[in-house]
Amino acid sequence: MGFSLLAYFLLSMTGFVLFRKRQSHHLQPRWLRPLHYIVGWLMVSLVLLLLFIGIVGTFGHFGSLGHSGHLIAGLSVVFLVFLSACSSTLIRPERDWARAIHVGTNIALLVGFTWVSWTGWEVVQKYLP
């Protein structure tokens, strides 16, 4: 989870720099946009890995899913990450709505990561003696 949060932080920083450069009509460094995409796909991969680990671990330990709000929080984060990734592929100068969806989803993702971290901590407490 820590790597996903680190990826989210890096994406917010690189996204903010991309936004500032676009608003001020300055040229962006050539490496910035590819870095943003690479870290974004890394975050998608990490979230899928966490989903897989969570489902397999919970099912293996309890025999079923849905023992806490963590499942709903986790699925919400997975949905938001995929919505953000999909909307990013649609961003073009003539499609300002796609950028608005991407940015809005990423703001909602901050709430989602907070929620999944909180409920995850509650789940971890069940495993600790």
Automatic annotation (TrEMBL):
**Transmembrane residue ranges:** 6-23, 35-59, 71-91, 103-121
Q: Does the keyword Transcription apply?
A: no
One Pfam assignment: DUF4079
**Domain of life of the organism encoding this protein:** Bacteria
InterPro entries assigned to the protein according to its UniProt record, in alphabetical order: DUF4079
Which controlled-vocabulary keywords does the entry list? Membrane, Transmembrane, Transmembrane helix
Task: Quote the protein name from its UniProt record.
Answer: DUF4079 domain-containing protein
